[in-house]
Write a structure and sequence with these properties.
Elements (H helix, E strand, L loop, with lengths): L1 H10 L1 H21 L12 E7 L5 H16 L5 E9 L2 E8 L5 H15 L10 E2 L8 E8 L5 H16 L5 E7 L4 E7 L1 H7 L3 H10 L2 E10 L2 E9 L4 H5 L2 E5 L2 E4 H4 E7 L16 E6 L5 H16 L7 E7 H31 L2 H8 L1 H15 L6 H9 L1 H34 L1
Antiparallel strand pairs: 1-3, 1-4, 2-3, 5-13, 5-14, 6-13, 7-12, 8-9, 10-11
Helix pairs in contact: 2-13, 3-4, 10-11, 11-12, 11-14, 11-15, 12-15
Length: about 425
């Protein structure tokens, strides 16, 4: 079979060269299409289920949330194993699927199962899926330089403007906010006053909840004009909350301010984010979607940041604290430089040892064709251009030229033997 292939190639050299040129051009397009990243994604094929039930102990979360979810999700198809962890007020379930399972198919199976489990969980507990990113999906971290703004205002700006704008970038799975205070109204109840007015905490909660609502009426027409009736009752200030009546005692309304203190403050935090020892900062983490090109997504996020900056308050700017794009470009440039140096060295070595430019050219020309064609396989198997894959290509350059050197030496040997035989036969004829 090999002899026939060699014979056919020798008889059809033009076709062989044309196929090699086509393979090289195809490989060039594959190089441009191949996603670029600094590090390979070796994370497991997993789907994260996050459940929040604030104020509950880890043991209660384990018994009433984590354990029911883990036992139910174990029956999903193509699942390798399910891990669960519980902490104060939060539960995390990691569903690990087989490596060849498509990630969005896996998320659909988990979502279907959650819809049937939810009714068995405590009231108000709603499991939700984590972002469709991987363990190496954190591609960019940024903070806000906002002199003159407090941490609550910075976090509000991040949550209600910046996060929504950056999350629309193609390839971004999630913008995770961190730092600062999530502003909220807090009603601190005085138990002594509750006892004095013979009230309970649920009565205070129901009063605030029922007065923070908006309801619709109906539509009616008058003088040929249609009007829509609605009631607007959303609370908008501390004063409005303080004036909410809870109950009437002796025709005198008992207000929230009579039994509690109302204040605007931040949600309880479990930690802070400090940058360079200069104080707390507010920022976000850009999480890349599964299978995306990290370098392209980072460039798109940075371009979007320039547009978002136009709508920020005066003096507020972005400060990028972690940018994988720099690591990607440095890594790729280093590998490219190494590849070029190896190709030059190998070419010189082949020319010096063969000392025959046609033989050396036939060997050296294999290097760019093989390198370009290797990216076809990288794309076929979903492997990105990273430190590991490009280093493997660099190490394989010696192997690439070995075959050409051996074949050239073998051909030269046989040609020399045939030439020597022809010389002897020619001498006999002349003699």
């Amino acid at each position: 079979m090999v002899h026939r292939l060699i014979s056919w190639s020798l008889r059809n050299r033009f076709i062989v060269l044309l196929l090699a040129a086509a393979l090289f051009v195809w490989g060039i397009f594959a190089v441009k299409k191949n996603p670029i990243d600094a590090i390979p994604d070796l994370s497991e094929n997993q789907v994260i289920v996050f459940t929040e039930w604030m104020g509950r102990s880890p043991q209660l979360m384990e018994d009433q949330v984590t354990y029911p979810l883990v036992t139910s999700l174990q029956g999903l198809p193509r699942v390798k194993y399910v891990r669960g962890s519980s902490m104060f007020g939060m539960s995390f379930i990691y569903v690990i699927f087989q490596d060849d399972a498509e990630i969005y198919w896996a998320r659909e199976r988990v979502l279907e199962k959650i819809s049937t489990i939810s009714r068995t969980l405590p009231a108000g507990v709603i499991p939700q899926l984590g972002p469709d990113g991987t363990g190496v999906g954190h591609i960019l971290w940024y903070t806000l330089k906002a002199p003159g703004m407090n941490l609550g205002e910075q976090r509000a700006l991040q949550d209600w403007y910046i996060r929504f704008a950056l999350q629309n970038v193609e390839g971004v799975s999630e913008i995770a906010s961190f730092g600062g205070f999530q502003q909220q109204y807090q009603v601190v109840v005085n138990p002594n006053k509750l006892l004095y007015y013979r009230l309970s905490v649920p009565e205070v909660i129901n009063a605030v909840r029922s007065n923070n609502n908006e309801s619709g009426g109906r539509k009616f027409e008058m003088s040929g004009i249609g009007y829509i009736i609605k009631t607007s009752g959303y609370l908008q200030s501390v004063k409005e909350i303080e004036n909410i009546p809870i109950k009437n005692q002796g025709s005198v309304p008992i207000r929230v301010a009579d039994v509690a203190t109302v204040q605007m403050t931040g949600e309880t935090r479990n930690g802070i984010f400090d940058q360079d020892g200069t104080g707390e900062r507010v920022g976000g983490i850009v999480v890349m979607r599964y299978g995306e090109n990290a370098a392209a997504v980072i460039d798109k996020v940075k371009a979007k940041m320039k547009d978002v900056s136009k709508g920020l308050p005066d003096g507020v700017t972005f400060d990028i604290v972690y940018d994988r794009g720099e690591l990607i470009h440095e890594s790729i440039d280093s590998i490219k430089r190494t590849l070029i140096e190896e190709m030059i060295v190998v070419t010189l070595v082949v020319i010096v040892f063969m000392f025959h430019w046609r033989s050396a050219l036939s060997i050296v020309i294999q290097i760019p064709i093989t390198l370009a064609a290797s990216f076809l396989l990288l794309n076929a198997f979903g492997i990105s251009s990273n430190i590991m894959s490009l280093t493997g290509i660099a190490l394989a350059i010696g192997v690439i030229v070995d075959n050409g050197i051996i074949m050239s030496e073998n051909a030269y040997k046989h040609l020399s033997e045939r030439y020597a035989l022809w010389e002897r036969e020619k001498g006999k004829v002349q003699g």
